[in-house]
């Protein structure tokens, strides 16, 4: 309008023609398309009446019930040409407000001009956000909860953005939701599903809302709500019992898993998986394991080809706080050559008094060719089992050791008397009889233990001197291709070793279950063995032979006495 007025003034000056114009005035407010409840603004009236006239201006807000006049005179007197009258108003009600300003000629009292202004008054939105209650949760167990976005304001909210997150970073469904608008005094619930992934205290979920008013202004208040909770669960750990370093082929090795639960909740649906070189060989489902409890699980695995193996034991449960301790490993080797184990009470092949005095005695035993050997730290008794499935066993024997057998109801004892570099002196006894043998090194010797034709036991010494020898006992007549060689100890052959003079029971036959961990089974039962043994260079000395000889000597003496008496 000012530009328009300026143009008219220039034309008038140029033409110098007096003209009469209609009255004109302007009513304005701040440049806003809409006002909000409680806003204050300035209303301005400008006198543009020509020819220049002064008048009294009145602001009429009879059609604006929600408007309050704060400052400015009403009416404003004698507003001159291009003069400005101002008022400050406050909007106290919603809706459309109609303002009108009227200018009356100060001299004549006639209405010079009238100006109108329409104002739209809206209200602010007011958003709140709340979460439903979350208490103690279980790790891995989904839980549903609700966030509620509520507009408690009188104005409509627009561009509402809602986000929900977890402090530990777990996934939440509907974690980001948008609304184009949310009417005044309305609310919208949002359902979420949350699955906690870590155990502990002080975990929380937080909801945040951002929004704008009807004019597109980003509201400064950002409502939030936080719900704190604890997460519990089980926390299994597993340990693999130490395996023997070496296991014989075609033998059973026992895998043992000890599973503990130090967690705060019961471990449910526990599954233990045994893997050999990465391949699962057995899976077992275990009962639930209570907090603070432990369970031991075992599995027997049959060894196959000679090789190095790695056992892996893995356990799982439904609500595990951590899986860092859920796996255990152990290494072992399958081989026909079992290295000696010092400290197991047996002087094995490869051990000496110097290398392992705990098993072989003090290193003071003499040796050498023909010189014999001294005794060890104590005599030992081996209870030996031979079967058609396992017909050959090698024992590391030393001077004074005894090997006991049960054969068809008879008890036999094989006593190592002396070990030389090329000869093994062996004593064999049954009941009161006793026979001595000298067995040549590295040669097979076969022994007949009964009156039937045929060998019952084979013996092959491998003398080492120094009072020790590896002695192989075997069943003759068993196909060599089917023969499984077991070298004891350790291993999985049935046997027991006791020291003479100990409290161990040395009477009767003792049949042992195979053991592969190097620990001797203390249980035994009456023997059920088949036992065929034979010795080439034997000297049989059965009891009946001695009795027969005594009878013959008695008869010969009686005959001689009778002959002499009769002659006399």
Describe the structure.
With 568 residues, this protein is mainly beta. It has five domains: 22-122, Immunoglobulin-like (Sandwich); 127-232, Immunoglobulin-like; 237-334, Immunoglobulin-like; 357-537, no CATH class; 544-568. Helices cover 8% and strands 45% of the residues. The chain contains three helices and 36 strands. It has helices at 2-15, 357-360, 543-567; strands at 25-28, 35-36, 40-47, 55-63, 67-71, 76-79, 84-91, 95-105, 111-122, 127-131, 137-138, 143-151, 157-166, 176-182, 186-194, 200-212, 224-232, 237-240, 246-247, 252-260, 270-276, 279-286, 294-302, 307-316, 327-334, 380-384, 392-398, 402-407, 410-419, 423-430, 433-440, 445-447, 457-465, 468-474, 485-487, 495-499. The strands form eight sheets. The protein has a six-stranded mixed sheet, with no helix packed on it. The protein has a five-stranded mixed sheet with strand order 2-9-8-4-6, with no helix packed on it. A five-stranded mixed sheet has the order 11-17-16-13-14, with no helix packed on it. β21 and β22 (279-286) form a beta hairpin. The longest helix has 25 residues, at 543-567. The relative contact order is 0.08. Mean pLDDT is 75; it is low at 1-21, 362-377 and 482-545.
